[in-house]
Every structure is written in structure tokens, then in C-alpha cells.
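task queued by scheduler; priority normal; single chain, no ligands, no partner chains; default sampling; output format set to C-alpha cells
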Amino acid sequence: MNANEKQLIELIRKGEGIDLEFKACRNQLNRDVYQTVCAFLNRYGGTILLGVSDSGIVQGIEQSAVAQIKKDFVTAINNPKKIHPPAYLSVNEVAVEGRLMLRIYVPESSQVHRCNGRIFDRNEDGDFDITDHTRQVADLYQRKHTTYSENKIYPYAGLDELERKLIGQCRKIAVLRREDYPWRNMDDMELLKSAQIYQTDPETGKSGVTLAGLLLLGKRSPLLSAVPHHRTDLILRKVNLDRYDDRDFVDVNLVESYDRIMAFVAKHLSDPFYLEGTTSISIRDAIFREVASNILIHREYTNAFPAKLIIERGQVRAENSNKPHGFGVLNLETFTPFPKNPVIAAFFRQIGRADELGSGMRKMMRYGKAYGGADPQLIEGDIFRIIVKVPEFSTTGEESGAPEITPQVTGEVTGEVTPEVTPEVTPEVRILTFISGEMTRQSLQSALKLRDDEHFRKSYLLPALQAGFIEMTIPDKPRSSKQKYRLTEKGRKVLKGIASGSE
């Protein structure tokens, strides 16, 4: 019996309660399962086990009915006429004593949800329709707005404070991912309301864009007015350990921040060839997609601690402020995901920037060891930390404890990769073909016919230095006006590989 099965048995023995519900569901869904989903969303979240009787007897689900039950559930849960606002939940197949069940984890939501137009809440005795109980409904709205800072409404903040072009881009992405997506026929304001990022305060009656809306789509000025401390620091620190080798201060909206993070990762981390079945996938992007979305989605934005992603030799560290639900290293087998900013998370899922709650973390763990030679670590606390081991290109030929992958070579890594392999002509390799003896920065940039100083520095000069292909003639004074650059022995070998590959 594995750990997951033991955990399920203990859960079933505990019996139904405020965060656990059983449904027999032998060959079709119980109709009241959606009321339970609504109640869990509105209260503290919970787990629904399909295939278990009310008394806790594991009856299981007929194998032939599993696929249809999962399809029916996912279709209904994404239908705003059934659950409004729609929820994005995954259904996992599990087994106890050989009997197949379905487990649905429902997170607490920052919104008030309705099932078939009715509001349900949860207590120890089950699901209760509170729609006609004004006081209870008002208390529910108040609790949601107090608990989740992303719901703070900025009265009279509207479309003028948002990047309208970005709204259109997000609509296009959502529709490309699903042709019949409701955003297709919505104008910009309808889209904001559908995404729950333009709301009305039930007590004051004032409407406006929420903090989630400003964070996701806001122009830089109104965003920083609402959250002056908003910033994500992207740092490369491999050569200059006292300061940094490259840095990007990201203080734009979250959709644009995500792109900046992934571009920084792509610039400074290798992407080895990896086959999943017969399909080649980027495990680097799969891992850091989750890291990037965690930094942005699950941050506690009332805390001024700046989020960080630091690329070091052999590892990447990510940190963000957090509202913890436990402390210490997370164990994947016992981990229960908890949404910190459900509205922001839902928006990211709709535009394909994040996975279902919990599944992204599992994907990161699955690929982490293949990428860097060790499992990633996720550490819960007031500051949430992720540590991912990454492959390093060794300049000495010694093992670094992780797969040795040359950043310039794409292909299946089998055994040792030698400098004689013809590298891909990336910017840091291309610069080598223009170096003759010792050259100044200006003369190198001119030889490459590049006008943008910053682009030359970030895309050509720094990567070539960090890869060890070139070196400074005055390394102790990197900013010296007399500074020049020349090929290293490693750079000459790479240059030789280019020449031999072209013969």
C-alpha cells in the first residue's frame, strides 16, 4: 500500500465534514455534486470523493463510466449557467483496495459563487442554500473581500487605467485555446466583469477595477500608485558573486512580467533535448513556467517584500512574500494546494500561462531531476522559496553534480559533449567570428553592425563573457576606458568548431 492510498483511507475514516464530502456515483454523477462544489468554493474549500457512500464505504466507480463522468463534470463546472463565476477544477483518478474512485480538490475561492443561480455555503452538516438570507450573504461577501487583498476595489478605476491592447491580446489567446470561449463575443468591460476583475462593492455600491485587475492588466503608473512596492528582481549572479552579472527590475503588470521572466530564463539557462514518448519538449520552460507563475500568482501583494528570481551557479532560487498555510519543505505526496490569489490564478489559466492548481507543481517535480540532477525544493513560510537545480556548462570538464549540457548545442545528451561539436551560432557564439586580437567594446559592436548599446551588451557581450568564450584584458577594472576583449582558449576551440563544421 503506497502513501497516497494510506492517506485516502485515513481521509475516509475521518468521515464527512466541513471540508470533506462523499458521493456514491457508481456510473453517473450525483446532481447535488455541484452544490457541494459551490459550497466549498464559498467556504474554506474541501475534497469530494466520488465512489464512496455517505457511510464511508468504498464502492468504487464502474471503469466504463469514468471517462464520461470526468467529461460531464469538467464541462458543467466551466459552464457559467451551472457555476458562476466558473471554476477550474481537475479530477484525479485514485484507487483504494483495488476500487477506482475520483478525487476532486476544490480550493477556497476569493469570489462568491452561485450554483444554478443559488448561493450555497457549508458547515459540518452539509450544503445550505443561503440565497434568501440577506445577513448571511452579506457576511459571506465581507469575508471574501477581507481575506483576499486581490479583491480590493478601486472606485472609478476603469478601462483608462488598463492596457486596452493587452486585453485584446488576452481575449485572442483564450479564444485560440478554445474556439467557443465566452470572451469571444464580449466587449472589454464585459470581459473584465466575467474575469471578476471589475466588481461592485455590495456595501457602498461603488464599482471599479480590483487590485487583481490593476496587477494583471494595469498601465504602469496606476499600478504603481496602487502597489508602490510592486517589483520582481531578476538576477544573474555567477561570475560577480558580490553584485550581479545581469539584472532586470520588472515593475510592469503581471501578464507582461511573465514574459520578461521567461525571456530572462531563456537567455541565461540551457534547454537540453528531452523526449517525452516520441515528442520533444522543453523541460526548462515547463519547470520555469511554474516558477514564474508562482512568483506572480501566489504572492501576497500587501507585503512590500520584493519577489526575486536569482540564477546562480548550479541552481535557481525564487522568493516571494506569502500568506503561509504551514511551514517547512512541502511533500508532494501530502501536499494540498491552497490558492493565494484565485482571481489572478484563474486569469492566468485562461490565457495558458498556468496549470490547474497543484498540477504545475507536480510537473515541475517530475521534470526537475531530469533537468538539474535533483528534485526541486519548495519551502513554505512567510517567504515562499523554490530552489531548482540547473545544468551547468563546465569550463574544466569536471562534473558539476548535474547533467553537463552545452548551452550552444541542442540534441540528445548522451555522454560527454566536447567543444569540437559544431555549436549553434547564437549571439554569444557569433561575436567570436568578429574578434581579431584585442578589441574595444565599440569596435566589436561596430563590427557586428549593431546600433543598440544595451542590446549588444545583454545579448552578445555578457553571454560570451559568462560562457567563458572571451575575457577582459583588464579584469580588475571592468569599467576601465582602456578595457578590451580577446578570445579565450575555450573561445578559440568553439571558433575552430564553427570553421570545421562549415567546411
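post-processing summary
- Residues 232-389 form a domain with the Heat Shock Protein 90 fold (CATH 3.30.565.60).
- Residues 63-77 form the longest helix (15 residues).
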